[in-house]
Write a structure and sequence with these properties.
Creatine Amidinohydrolase; 10 helices; alpha+beta; six-stranded mixed β-sheet; elongated; three-stranded antiparallel β-sheet
Length: 386
């Protein structure tokens, strides 16, 4: 169950192109500087997410310069983790990194700085105070509208990494389906899924894992406790891993033996809704139309409407990449047109409160000719992977 051929990591040439794309997008937003802080955006541009603490670390990007900012005593660590850190600016323990950033911006005659949306409120507030102290205050705002469209379009290298992660998680689901039996506790199943992900070559074990039985399946993200699987109960397992930071995320809902006919009926409706969403996903189609396609199927079977139960209590899908959930989203109000390179979950869950829930979750990526599944969707309630 190991990755047959692990795709190469994202190389420096692609990361340099990402920086070039960011710089190209800045003028149209009226921005002449972007400040990146620890998190997935830092990993996207510079290969490492690092970590956020009370000691500020970040990267200031202007039209001509890429300046890594960190405490002086962290210089060796930053240089080791970030080979792209050619230019650095340091602050000592008694100094303000935010005053340093303000000085750097003023020295380059910057007029508007966009801040990484993942920056903590505490750091953002202190930066804004420092900018306000300048003789010529610098305007500030969020870099979300600049960065998100860049990250939404995945390269072939990114898609290859997600294919590897998705295929690994699908194989884990297959192994668990063949192994699980009544009497097993959810915690034991989670531990085995983690072991299998690790053995298969994931960055670490599970990046997340939800194992739900019976009535607990009606709670989209589960409930506390560690129940044991009872004979005849519905099983819902939602899990994923990462390969070079890129996520998988697959849900399977199945039964090991004959189950109530109402569950069988709604399982088929769930399958129909998932397929309708996929079929709607054409280049140029607004994201919200894909959500509507799934909901229209549910409404035709007497479910919903909107988020009413029994029915679909959440959006049909989310973008995926370095973050398990990232934009754009398959949800009402998101009119982003589908474009080649975008990647989405497709999971129009059906919930019958207090009874059961059914979620079939697979992902697709957009090609110039339309959507393509990362992995083969589930086709049968009793043989989900065969």
């Amino acid at each position: 169950m190991t990755i047959a051929s692990r795709p190469p990591s994202i190389g420096n040439a692609e990361r340099e192109q990402r920086l070039a794309n960011l710089r190209s997008a800045m003028p149209a937003s009226g921005v002449d500087a972007v400040l990146i802080t620890p998190g997935s955006n830092m990993r996207y541009f510079f290969a490492e997410a690092f970590y956020e603490s009370e000691r500020f670390v970040g990267v200031l990007i202007t039209a001509e310069r890429t300046i890594f900012i960190c405490p002086k005593f962290e210089e060796s660590a930053i240089r080791a983790k970030f080979p792209m850190a050619a230019e650095m600016a340091f602050w000592e323990e008694h100094e303000s990194p935010f005053a340093l950033i303000a000085t750097l911006l003023a020295g380059q005659d910057c007029q508007r700085c966009a801040l990484d949306p993942e920056c903590s409120y505490g750091h953002a507030a202190r930066l804004f105070e420092a900018l306000a102290q300048l003789d010529k205050p610098i305007l500030y705002g969020s870099a979300a509208s600049i960065i998100a469209p860049l990250r939404a379009i995945k390269s072939s290298s990114e898609i290859d990494l997600m294919i590897a992660a998705m295929q690994l998680t699908l194989s884990v689901h297959q192994t668990i389906f063949d192994w699980i039996e009544p009497g097993m506790k959810a915690s034991a199943v989670i531990a085995e899924i983690d072991r299998l992900h690790r053995a298969g070559g994931a960055d670490r074990g599970n990046s997340f894992c939800a194992v739900q039985f019976g009535e607990a399946t009606s709670h989209p993200h589960g409930v506390p406790g560690d129940p044991a699987l009872q004979q005849g109960e519905l099983i819902l397992i939602d899990t994923g891993c990462t390969i070079d930071g890129y996520n998988s995320d697959i849900t399977r809902t199945y039964a090991l033996s004959k189950i109530d006919s109402k569950i069988e009926e709604l399982w088929r409706v769930e399958k129909e809704a998932q397929q309708a969403a996929f079929d709607c996903a054409a280049i140029g189609t607004p994201c919200e139309d894909v959500d509507k396609a799934a909901r229209d199927v549910l409404i035709s079977h007497g479910l919903g409407p909107d988020y009413d139960l029994p029915g679909l209590p959440h959006r049909t899908g989310h973008g995926i990449g370095l973050d398990i959930h990232e934009g754009p989203y398959l949800v009402k109000g998101d009119a982003t047109p589908l474009a080649a390179g975008m990647c989405f979950s497709n999971e129009p869950m059906i919930v019958v409160s207090g009874a059961f829930g059914i979620r079939l979750e697979d992902h697709f990526y957009m090609t110039p000719s339309g959507p393509k599944w990362f992995t083969e969707p589930q086709h049968d309630l009793y043989q989900p992977l065969g």
